[in-house]
Amino acid sequence: MPSDLPAPSDPPGSSVPTDLCCPICAAPLRASERAFACDAGHSFDRARQGYVNLLRPTRLRGDSAEMLRARRRVLDAGWYAPLAEALAQQVGAWLAADGAALPLASRALLDLGCGEGYYLRHLSESLGEPLAAQGWRLYGLDLAKDAIRMAAGLAAGHAPPAQAIPTTWVVASARARLPFADTGVGALLNIFAPRAAEEFARVVAPGGLLLVVTPLAEHLAEARAALPWLLSPQPDKDERLRATLESAFALEEARPVSFTLALDAAALADLARMTPHRDAEPAALEAAACAATERAPDGRLSVRAACLVRRYRRRA
């Protein structure tokens, strides 16, 4: 069975198979303590925090360090826990019903555009036992090296529950060829992240799970009214999503998830920094956040988060 980390019994210098593929030649990668390498001789060092950088040259840029730090503060405060729990329920129900039916070689769960790893950590900790029992391997992939460094660093410095299973963290682009084999992924999560329908269809195994989370039109409307720098959800996103996925994936459920955030000025400013927004002077952003919360009861602005969780099955 593929594994994402060398087993404790492996002798020093040995390597083990992974679900990852070389970004240069697409050959399978094997992992050792120091590097990931393919049989063609391409090698990618394992960073001190444990992640691997498979990013090919690109002009694309991931989220900035400021956005990531703001997002971590908001997520660590628990404001998005209802969404994390909803995703865990969806994945848990799917594992119980269909997870064991996939070939063992396809039991890789990928969070594509994982950011600093909040949702994947929640899955690992809440569903560790059923995931491990079925032989699943977890991968988090993001374009931003700072995001993966944060995810891997937190994992290394945090003692997870005993049932949690390890995650391999990867720097790579969600808009390029993914470093996975054809049908090599059994479950793919795409949470407020870029999508590449052709790559989804290539890597997700027949019968596999695709979960896509997108914002609804009313998502964070109160924050957008108070902070004009925040961008609104694209009105045609739902139609474009349906059109790009329907040939390879069957929509099984579309479930709205909404919850209320009661944000003080600092948290409101962080919410603005972590979401898509136009450039704003920090002082102006903070002043607007203070003004909005000063007018609110108890100094906290009520902001409704509203998104749609779509569950798809990969067509045979």
Explain what you see.
- Helices cover 33% and strands 26% of the residues.
- With 316 residues, it is an alpha/beta fold.
- It folds into two domains: 46 residues, no CATH class; 268 residues, Vaccinia Virus protein VP39 (Rossmann fold, 3-Layer(aba) Sandwich).
- Strands 5-8-7-6-9-10-12-11 form an eight-stranded mixed β-sheet, with helices on both faces. Strands 1-2-3-4 form a four-stranded antiparallel β-sheet, with no helix packed on it.
- Strand 1 and strand 2 form a beta hairpin.
- Helix 9 crosses helix 10.
- The longest helix has 18 residues.
- The two termini are 23 Å apart.
Q: What are the salient characteristics of this protein?
A:
316 residues; alpha/beta; Rossmann fold; 8-stranded mixed beta sheet; 4-stranded antiparallel beta sheet
Helix and strand arrangement:
Elements: E1 16-21, E2 28-31, E3 35-37, E4 43-45, E5 52-53, H1 65-76, H2 81-98, E6 108-112, H3 118-126, H4 128-133, E7 137-142, H5 145-157, E8 167-171, E9 185-191, H6 197-203, E10 204-215, H7 221-226, H8 237-245, E11 249-263, H9 265-274, H10 282-294, E12 301-314
Parallel strand pairs: 5-8, 6-7, 6-9, 7-8, 9-10
Antiparallel strand pairs: 1-2, 2-3, 3-4, 10-12, 11-12
